[in-house]
Amino acid sequence: MNIAIVGSGYVGLVTGTCFAEVGHNVICVDNDDAKVAQLKAGKIPIYEPGLEDLIRKNVQLKRLHFTNSIGEGVEKSQVVFIAVPTPPQHDGSVDLSYVETVARQIAEHIKEYRVVVDKSTVPVKTGEKVAETIRRYAKPGVEFDVVSNPEFLREGSAVEDLMKPDRIVFGVNSSKASALMHEVYSPFNAPIMVTDLNSAELIKHASNSFLALKISYINAVAAICEASGADVEKVAAGMGADKRIGRQFLNAGLGYGGSCFPKDISAFIKISEELGYNFQLLKEVEKINADQGERFLKKLRDKLWVLKDKKIGQLGLAFKGNTDDIRMSVGIRIAEQMVKEGASLLAYDPKGMEKCNQLHPDIKTVNSAYEAANGAEALIIATEWVDFKSLDWVKIRESMRTPLIFDGRNLLDPSEMKSLGFEYYSVGR
Ligand code: NAD
């Protein structure tokens, strides 16, 4: 099939590449000229495991193309995906201006039947608005359908998540669009769930909110573990062995961050409010999450007494492991707070430093975990990079001025760290 993806970021670029990988002809559109030029020159603007090879292969096979012309995408493709940002506004609601702009641009270029698929995360009923907008701005009589196809990929394993999804959800109001969507997705051999438009949109917000709820729940349990001397890892393992609960997303730590969870949860609260429901439960999820970083900093202040002029190393800036994405990262928030309190901080992240240097010049970065630890009076782990597990911890202990570790992601084994001579603090154990 001929497919266009409007918006070539974490979602659009990976989706387009995976569509090409299963044999479709894909045009990735972006209005960021520099990004398009970079992609055309074979440079990949984001880090995702496995992505670079797949892009290279599919560009060579002429199944994957890049352009800044949405007209070209709409003209050459039966199905046009929208994967542009839906950032939060000050009151927690979603800024839908990117989606609206693209809907109008599609309308201006549409000449014959097209399926317009919203893959951006949007409030329920956005699909109806997109359809209304296209109808208003397109030539009279032009046929099209709007579909909602929420994306569930996780940054850091986006290629794998897209190639082997747990399920594919699309909400459609027409059998013609449904048939074309089946054609898009049949090569993936994954369960396909077809719903109405509004339900598909709600599935995304309801899923992300539920996952965030699991994280905040285990963080609340971690506070009880700390107060009672229990071990949250053991509690989570015991809970997670129950199939009705599941072990995933029961990892105590600094809480959730990133470009999705924080904005999606506040959006869901706002949407519910507009629809007449006070989603108190999710407000509490947000509060627990916000408190989690503060509780961690308090632990640090309790042990180090004064942060001013203390030499502190930080491992991890990305919002999670395996990504270069630092948007709404708890690690960034914590680093900035320590700098504000006068700590002399040196941070390291395997992939997130370039973006950190561009956007947060107040956070000083170094080129290795060992440099961050050298001479430090405390070392913080803020991101769950597996690479940090296999560092030479003996070397690190020897290079630190005082060997204190604050593991905000429960990445390391407490007894092992203690036996290596560290004073070791983590979350809920
Ligand atoms: P992103 O910022 O990485 O990428 C968006 C891209 O859209 C950018 O390259 C930007 O230049 C481009 N763009 C903006 N306006 C445009 C326009 N008018 N025409 C063409 N291109 C335009 O964002 P993302 O992380 O890929 O997220 C996209 C959407 O997918 C959001 O709604 C997000 O909530 C949702 N989502 C994200 C993830 C994730 O893990 N990142 C997962 C699931 C869903």
Please outline what is shown here:
The chain is an alpha/beta fold.
Walkthrough of the structure:
The chain has 429 residues and is α/β, with parallel strands linked by helices. The chain has 2 domains: 2-195, 3-Layer(aba) Sandwich (Rossmann fold), CATH 3.40.50; 196-429, NAD(P)-binding Rossmann-like Domain (Rossmann fold, 3-Layer(aba) Sandwich), CATH 3.40.50. It is 45% helix and 13% strand. The protein has helices at 10-21, 33-40, 51-60, 70-76, 97-109, 126-137, 158-163, 175-185, 197-228, 232-240, 261-274, 280-304, 330-340, 353-359, 369-373, 393-399, 414-419, and strands at residues 2-6, 25-29, 64-67, 79-82, 114-118, 144-148, 168-171, 192-195, 311-315, 344-348, 378-381, 404-407, 423-425. Strands 3-2-1-4-5-6 form a 6-stranded parallel beta sheet, with helices on both faces. It has a 5-stranded parallel beta sheet with strand order 10-9-11-12-13. α4 (70-76) crosses α5. The longest helix is centred in the middle third of the chain and has 32 residues, at 197-228. The chain is globular. The mean pLDDT is 97. Nicotinamide-adenine-dinucleotide (NAD) binds at residues 6-12, 29-32, 35, 83-86, 98, 101-102, 120-121, 151, 153, 155, 259-260.
